[in-house]
Amino acid sequence: MKKIAWVILLGTAMSAGWLTPGIASADTSEIILMAHDSFSVGKAVVAKFENRHHVRLRFLKAGDTGAMLNQAILSKNNPMADVLFGVDNTFLSRALAADMFIPYRSPHLGDIPDELKLDPSYRLLPVDYGDVCLNYDRKWFAAKGLAPPARLEDLTTPAYSGLTVVENPATSSPGLAFLLATVGHFGRDGYLNFWKELRDGNVQVTASWKKAYWGSFSAASKGDRPIVVSYASSPAAEVHFADKLMEQSPTAAVVQKGTAFRQIEFVGILRGTKKADMARKLVDFMLERTFQEDIPLQMFVFPANKTAVLPAVFVKHARVAEHPVFVSPQDIAAHREEWIEAWTETVLR
Protein backbone atom coordinates (compact mmCIF):
# COMPACT_ATOMS: atom_id res chain seq x y z
CA MET A 1 0.00 0.00 0.00
CA LYS A 2 1.35 3.42 -0.96
CA LYS A 3 2.62 5.55 1.92
CA ILE A 4 0.25 8.47 2.16
CA ALA A 5 2.38 11.07 3.85
CA TRP A 6 5.31 11.41 1.49
CA VAL A 7 5.81 15.15 1.83
CA ILE A 8 4.02 17.14 4.50
CA LEU A 9 3.46 14.31 6.96
CA LEU A 10 7.04 13.02 6.97
CA GLY A 11 7.79 15.12 10.04
CA THR A 12 6.62 12.29 12.27
CA ALA A 13 9.40 10.02 11.05
CA MET A 14 11.66 11.04 13.91
CA SER A 15 8.98 10.91 16.59
CA ALA A 16 11.26 9.18 19.05
CA GLY A 17 13.54 12.19 19.05
CA TRP A 18 10.92 14.92 19.43
CA LEU A 19 10.48 16.97 22.57
CA THR A 20 7.18 18.25 23.87
CA PRO A 21 6.72 21.93 22.87
CA GLY A 22 7.67 24.24 25.71
CA ILE A 23 10.18 21.89 27.32
CA ALA A 24 13.83 22.67 26.72
CA SER A 25 16.77 20.93 28.30
CA ALA A 26 19.71 22.59 30.05
CA ASP A 27 21.79 19.46 29.52
CA THR A 28 25.11 20.57 28.01
CA SER A 29 25.47 17.20 26.30
CA GLU A 30 22.54 17.87 23.98
CA ILE A 31 21.45 20.52 21.52
CA ILE A 32 17.88 21.27 20.50
CA LEU A 33 16.66 22.03 17.00
CA MET A 34 13.22 23.65 16.77
CA ALA A 35 11.44 22.84 13.51
CA HIS A 36 8.04 22.73 11.82
CA ASP A 37 6.00 19.55 11.69
CA SER A 38 7.12 18.48 8.22
CA PHE A 39 10.81 18.43 9.09
CA SER A 40 12.37 14.99 8.73
CA VAL A 41 15.90 13.62 8.76
CA GLY A 42 17.33 10.12 8.56
CA LYS A 43 18.42 8.41 11.75
CA ALA A 44 21.83 7.61 10.30
CA VAL A 45 22.39 11.29 9.53
CA VAL A 46 21.47 12.27 13.08
CA ALA A 47 23.80 9.61 14.44
CA LYS A 48 26.67 10.94 12.32
CA PHE A 49 26.34 14.41 13.82
CA GLU A 50 25.95 13.02 17.36
CA ASN A 51 28.98 10.74 17.06
CA ARG A 52 31.14 13.44 15.50
CA HIS A 53 30.46 15.96 18.24
CA HIS A 54 29.61 13.69 21.20
CA VAL A 55 26.28 15.39 21.70
CA ARG A 56 22.64 14.37 21.52
CA LEU A 57 20.57 16.12 18.89
CA ARG A 58 17.01 16.66 20.06
CA PHE A 59 14.05 18.02 18.08
CA LEU A 60 11.31 20.36 19.22
CA LYS A 61 8.17 19.87 17.15
CA ALA A 62 6.36 23.20 16.91
CA GLY A 63 3.48 23.05 14.41
CA ASP A 64 3.41 24.58 10.97
CA THR A 65 5.79 27.36 9.95
CA GLY A 66 3.62 30.18 11.25
CA ALA A 67 2.90 28.50 14.57
CA MET A 68 6.56 27.60 15.01
CA LEU A 69 7.66 31.17 14.36
CA ASN A 70 5.05 32.53 16.77
CA GLN A 71 6.35 30.25 19.52
CA ALA A 72 9.93 31.25 18.83
CA ILE A 73 9.09 34.97 18.93
CA LEU A 74 7.07 34.69 22.14
CA SER A 75 9.90 32.80 23.86
CA LYS A 76 12.83 34.72 22.37
CA ASN A 77 13.99 36.05 25.74
CA ASN A 78 14.16 32.50 27.04
CA PRO A 79 14.48 30.36 23.88
CA MET A 80 13.13 26.82 23.91
CA ALA A 81 15.85 25.63 21.51
CA ASP A 82 19.32 26.48 20.29
CA VAL A 83 18.72 26.44 16.53
CA LEU A 84 15.55 27.02 14.50
CA PHE A 85 14.85 25.48 11.11
CA GLY A 86 11.96 26.09 8.75
CA VAL A 87 11.38 29.83 8.44
CA ASP A 88 10.74 30.32 4.73
CA ASN A 89 10.78 33.39 2.50
CA THR A 90 7.09 34.07 3.19
CA PHE A 91 7.98 34.70 6.85
CA LEU A 92 11.62 35.79 6.49
CA SER A 93 11.19 39.52 7.16
CA ARG A 94 8.98 38.88 10.17
CA ALA A 95 11.52 36.49 11.64
CA LEU A 96 14.38 38.94 11.12
CA ALA A 97 12.39 41.84 12.56
CA ALA A 98 12.03 39.89 15.82
CA ASP A 99 15.83 40.12 16.21
CA MET A 100 16.17 36.66 17.70
CA PHE A 101 19.00 35.18 15.61
CA ILE A 102 22.78 35.39 15.93
CA PRO A 103 24.60 36.25 12.68
CA TYR A 104 26.77 33.42 11.41
CA ARG A 105 28.60 33.09 8.11
CA SER A 106 29.03 29.35 7.70
CA PRO A 107 32.06 28.27 5.66
CA HIS A 108 29.63 26.22 3.53
CA LEU A 109 27.89 29.31 2.18
CA GLY A 110 30.29 29.22 -0.75
CA ASP A 111 28.50 26.09 -1.96
CA ILE A 112 25.09 27.76 -1.93
CA PRO A 113 23.85 29.83 -4.90
CA ASP A 114 23.58 33.55 -4.25
CA GLU A 115 19.93 33.67 -5.32
CA LEU A 116 18.99 31.58 -2.28
CA LYS A 117 20.75 33.93 0.16
CA LEU A 118 18.00 36.38 1.02
CA ASP A 119 19.43 37.61 4.33
CA PRO A 120 22.55 39.78 3.85
CA SER A 121 23.04 39.83 7.64
CA TYR A 122 23.54 36.03 7.66
CA ARG A 123 21.16 35.49 10.55
CA LEU A 124 19.16 33.02 8.48
CA LEU A 125 20.99 30.70 6.07
CA PRO A 126 19.30 28.76 3.23
CA VAL A 127 18.96 25.00 3.66
CA ASP A 128 16.54 23.87 0.94
CA TYR A 129 14.10 25.08 -1.68
CA GLY A 130 11.13 23.87 -3.68
CA ASP A 131 8.71 25.26 -6.23
CA VAL A 132 4.99 25.40 -5.43
CA CYS A 133 3.03 24.97 -8.63
CA LEU A 134 0.15 23.20 -10.33
CA ASN A 135 0.28 19.40 -10.58
CA TYR A 136 -2.01 17.47 -12.89
CA ASP A 137 -3.24 13.91 -13.39
CA ARG A 138 -1.71 12.63 -16.64
CA LYS A 139 -4.18 9.75 -17.06
CA TRP A 140 -7.23 11.98 -16.57
CA PHE A 141 -6.18 14.47 -19.24
CA ALA A 142 -5.18 11.75 -21.68
CA ALA A 143 -8.56 10.04 -21.25
CA LYS A 144 -10.46 13.28 -21.82
CA GLY A 145 -8.36 14.34 -24.80
CA LEU A 146 -7.78 17.70 -23.12
CA ALA A 147 -4.39 19.40 -23.03
CA PRO A 148 -3.12 19.85 -19.47
CA PRO A 149 -2.72 23.44 -18.24
CA ALA A 150 0.46 25.23 -19.28
CA ARG A 151 -0.28 28.67 -17.83
CA LEU A 152 -2.23 30.00 -14.87
CA GLU A 153 -4.54 31.73 -17.34
CA ASP A 154 -5.65 28.33 -18.64
CA LEU A 155 -7.46 27.63 -15.38
CA THR A 156 -9.98 30.40 -16.03
CA THR A 157 -11.11 29.10 -19.43
CA PRO A 158 -14.37 27.09 -19.68
CA ALA A 159 -12.59 23.83 -20.53
CA TYR A 160 -10.96 23.80 -17.07
CA SER A 161 -14.01 24.74 -15.03
CA GLY A 162 -14.40 22.57 -11.95
CA LEU A 163 -11.04 20.83 -12.38
CA THR A 164 -8.83 22.58 -9.81
CA VAL A 165 -8.37 22.27 -6.06
CA VAL A 166 -6.25 24.79 -4.15
CA GLU A 167 -5.32 25.32 -0.51
CA ASN A 168 -6.46 28.23 1.63
CA PRO A 169 -3.51 30.66 1.97
CA ALA A 170 -4.63 31.57 5.49
CA THR A 171 -4.11 27.99 6.70
CA SER A 172 -1.72 26.36 4.25
CA SER A 173 1.91 27.09 3.36
CA PRO A 174 1.62 25.93 -0.27
CA GLY A 175 -1.69 27.78 -0.44
CA LEU A 176 0.07 31.01 0.54
CA ALA A 177 2.91 30.33 -1.89
CA PHE A 178 0.45 29.85 -4.75
CA LEU A 179 -1.36 33.07 -3.82
CA LEU A 180 2.01 34.84 -4.00
CA ALA A 181 2.62 33.29 -7.40
CA THR A 182 -0.59 34.91 -8.63
CA VAL A 183 0.31 38.26 -7.05
CA GLY A 184 3.72 38.20 -8.70
CA HIS A 185 2.43 37.01 -12.06
CA PHE A 186 -0.72 39.10 -12.45
CA GLY A 187 0.37 42.06 -10.33
CA ARG A 188 -1.34 43.67 -7.38
CA ASP A 189 -4.01 45.11 -9.65
CA GLY A 190 -4.69 41.88 -11.50
CA TYR A 191 -4.39 38.90 -9.16
CA LEU A 192 -7.89 39.29 -7.69
CA ASN A 193 -9.43 39.27 -11.16
CA PHE A 194 -7.76 35.90 -11.72
CA TRP A 195 -9.18 34.58 -8.47
CA LYS A 196 -12.65 35.92 -9.26
CA GLU A 197 -12.61 34.02 -12.53
CA LEU A 198 -11.30 30.92 -10.78
CA ARG A 199 -14.10 31.19 -8.21
CA ASP A 200 -16.66 31.53 -10.98
CA GLY A 201 -15.04 28.46 -12.55
CA ASN A 202 -15.92 26.38 -9.49
CA VAL A 203 -12.48 26.14 -7.90
CA GLN A 204 -12.39 23.99 -4.77
CA VAL A 205 -10.61 25.29 -1.66
CA THR A 206 -9.33 23.06 1.15
CA ALA A 207 -7.71 23.93 4.47
CA SER A 208 -4.51 21.96 3.89
CA TRP A 209 -2.27 20.33 1.33
CA LYS A 210 -3.16 16.92 2.75
CA LYS A 211 -6.88 17.47 2.18
CA ALA A 212 -6.31 18.80 -1.33
CA TYR A 213 -3.84 16.16 -2.51
CA TRP A 214 -5.07 13.07 -0.71
CA GLY A 215 -8.73 14.04 -0.56
CA SER A 216 -9.58 15.74 -3.86
CA PHE A 217 -6.80 15.17 -6.39
CA SER A 218 -7.85 12.42 -8.82
CA ALA A 219 -4.35 10.99 -9.23
CA ALA A 220 -3.90 10.36 -5.50
CA SER A 221 -7.41 9.74 -4.18
CA LYS A 222 -11.00 9.06 -5.15
CA GLY A 223 -11.40 12.78 -5.69
CA ASP A 224 -12.54 14.28 -8.99
CA ARG A 225 -10.11 17.19 -9.35
CA PRO A 226 -7.28 16.48 -11.83
CA ILE A 227 -5.41 19.71 -11.01
CA VAL A 228 -3.98 20.50 -7.57
CA VAL A 229 -1.56 23.00 -6.06
CA SER A 230 1.45 21.01 -4.86
CA TYR A 231 5.22 20.94 -5.48
CA ALA A 232 7.36 20.51 -8.57
CA SER A 233 8.98 17.58 -6.77
CA SER A 234 5.68 15.81 -6.06
CA PRO A 235 5.92 13.64 -9.20
CA ALA A 236 9.21 12.24 -7.86
CA ALA A 237 7.48 11.34 -4.60
CA GLU A 238 4.74 9.56 -6.51
CA VAL A 239 7.33 7.35 -8.19
CA HIS A 240 9.42 6.83 -5.05
CA PHE A 241 6.48 5.63 -2.97
CA ALA A 242 4.66 3.72 -5.70
CA ASP A 243 3.72 0.11 -5.04
CA LYS A 244 5.26 -0.90 -8.37
CA LEU A 245 8.22 0.34 -10.39
CA MET A 246 7.19 2.95 -12.94
CA GLU A 247 9.01 4.74 -15.72
CA GLN A 248 6.75 7.78 -15.69
CA SER A 249 5.07 9.50 -12.80
CA PRO A 250 1.25 9.50 -12.92
CA THR A 251 1.42 13.22 -12.24
CA ALA A 252 3.28 16.14 -13.78
CA ALA A 253 4.21 19.63 -12.60
CA VAL A 254 3.56 22.90 -14.42
CA VAL A 255 6.75 24.95 -14.14
CA GLN A 256 6.61 27.29 -17.13
CA LYS A 257 7.52 30.94 -16.63
CA GLY A 258 5.12 32.72 -14.30
CA THR A 259 3.47 29.61 -12.85
CA ALA A 260 5.49 28.69 -9.76
CA PHE A 261 6.64 30.32 -6.52
CA ARG A 262 9.94 29.24 -4.98
CA GLN A 263 9.87 28.51 -1.27
CA ILE A 264 13.25 28.70 0.43
CA GLU A 265 13.71 27.38 3.98
CA PHE A 266 16.30 28.75 6.37
CA VAL A 267 18.14 27.85 9.56
CA GLY A 268 19.34 30.22 12.25
CA ILE A 269 20.97 30.21 15.68
CA LEU A 270 18.62 31.52 18.35
CA ARG A 271 19.89 34.44 20.38
CA GLY A 272 20.17 33.41 24.01
CA THR A 273 21.46 29.92 23.40
CA LYS A 274 24.07 28.78 25.88
CA LYS A 275 25.54 26.45 23.27
CA ALA A 276 26.48 28.87 20.51
CA ASP A 277 29.58 26.93 19.48
CA MET A 278 27.67 23.66 19.09
CA ALA A 279 24.84 25.54 17.39
CA ARG A 280 27.30 26.77 14.75
CA LYS A 281 28.46 23.19 14.25
CA LEU A 282 24.87 22.08 13.76
CA VAL A 283 24.24 24.80 11.19
CA ASP A 284 27.42 23.77 9.38
CA PHE A 285 26.29 20.16 9.42
CA MET A 286 22.90 21.06 7.96
CA LEU A 287 24.66 22.77 5.04
CA GLU A 288 27.12 19.92 4.46
CA ARG A 289 26.58 17.24 1.83
CA THR A 290 25.64 14.49 4.32
CA PHE A 291 22.59 16.37 5.56
CA GLN A 292 21.90 18.04 2.23
CA GLU A 293 21.82 14.76 0.31
CA ASP A 294 19.35 13.38 2.85
CA ILE A 295 16.86 16.20 2.20
CA PRO A 296 15.27 15.10 -1.11
CA LEU A 297 13.91 11.74 0.03
CA GLN A 298 13.07 12.99 3.53
CA MET A 299 11.23 16.23 2.77
CA PHE A 300 10.97 16.10 -1.04
CA VAL A 301 12.54 19.48 -1.66
CA PHE A 302 15.87 20.37 -3.23
CA PRO A 303 19.07 20.83 -1.20
CA ALA A 304 20.53 24.34 -1.18
CA ASN A 305 24.10 23.06 -1.46
CA LYS A 306 24.91 22.86 -5.16
CA THR A 307 27.51 20.12 -4.59
CA ALA A 308 24.91 17.73 -3.15
CA VAL A 309 24.18 14.73 -5.36
CA LEU A 310 20.49 14.21 -6.08
CA PRO A 311 18.89 10.74 -5.92
CA ALA A 312 18.06 9.23 -9.30
CA VAL A 313 14.30 9.59 -8.79
CA PHE A 314 14.75 13.33 -8.31
CA VAL A 315 16.95 13.70 -11.36
CA LYS A 316 14.38 11.95 -13.53
CA HIS A 317 11.05 13.08 -12.11
CA ALA A 318 11.42 16.25 -10.01
CA ARG A 319 11.37 19.64 -11.68
CA VAL A 320 12.77 23.10 -11.01
CA ALA A 321 11.12 26.20 -12.42
CA GLU A 322 13.63 28.12 -14.56
CA HIS A 323 11.74 31.38 -14.06
CA PRO A 324 9.79 31.22 -10.79
CA VAL A 325 7.65 34.16 -9.76
CA PHE A 326 9.48 36.43 -7.32
CA VAL A 327 7.91 38.54 -4.57
CA SER A 328 10.40 40.10 -2.18
CA PRO A 329 10.35 39.11 1.50
CA GLN A 330 9.84 42.78 2.32
CA ASP A 331 6.71 43.01 0.16
CA ILE A 332 5.42 39.77 1.60
CA ALA A 333 5.92 41.03 5.15
CA ALA A 334 4.21 44.33 4.35
CA HIS A 335 1.24 42.92 2.44
CA ARG A 336 0.81 39.24 3.39
CA GLU A 337 -2.21 39.77 5.64
CA GLU A 338 -3.73 42.28 3.24
CA TRP A 339 -3.43 39.86 0.32
CA ILE A 340 -4.82 36.95 2.33
CA GLU A 341 -7.80 39.02 3.49
CA ALA A 342 -8.50 40.25 -0.04
CA TRP A 343 -8.30 36.65 -1.29
CA THR A 344 -10.69 35.50 1.44
CA GLU A 345 -13.19 38.22 0.56
CA THR A 346 -12.95 37.38 -3.14
CA VAL A 347 -12.99 33.59 -3.06
CA LEU A 348 -14.77 32.51 0.10
CA ARG A 349 -17.28 35.25 0.93
Give the helix level as a range of percent: 25-40%
Mean pLDDT: 91
Radius of gyration: 20 Å
How many helices? The count is 13
Shape: globular
CATH topology of the largest domain: D-Maltodextrin-Binding Protein, domain 2
Number of domains: 2
CATH superfamily annotation of the largest domain: Periplasmic binding protein-like II
Number of strands: 12
Encode the helix/strand succession as letters: EEHEHEHEEHEHHEHEHEEHHHEHH
Question: How would you describe what is shown here?
Answer:
The chain is an alpha/beta fold and 349 residues long. It folds into two domains: 8-129 and 264-308, Periplasmic binding protein-like II (D-Maltodextrin-Binding Protein, domain 2), CATH 3.40.190; 131-261 and 319-347, Periplasmic binding protein-like II (D-Maltodextrin-Binding Protein, domain 2, 3-Layer(aba) Sandwich). The protein is 34% helix and 18% strand. The chain has 13 helices and twelve strands. It has helices spanning 43-53, 65-74, 92-97, 138-144, 173-186, 191-200, 209-215, 234-240, 276-287, 289-292, 295-299, 312-317, 329-347, and strands spanning 18-19, 30-35, 56-61, 83-88, 101-102, 125-137, 164-167, 204-206, 227-231, 251-254, 261-270, 302-303. Strands 1, 2, 3, 4, 5, 6, 7, 8, 9, 10, 11 and 12 form a twelve-stranded mixed β-sheet that branches. Helix 5 (173-186) crosses helix 13 (329-347) and helix 6 runs parallel beside helix 13 (329-347). It is globular, with a radius of gyration of 20 Å. 50% of the residues are buried. Mean pLDDT is 91; it is low at 1-5 and 7-25.
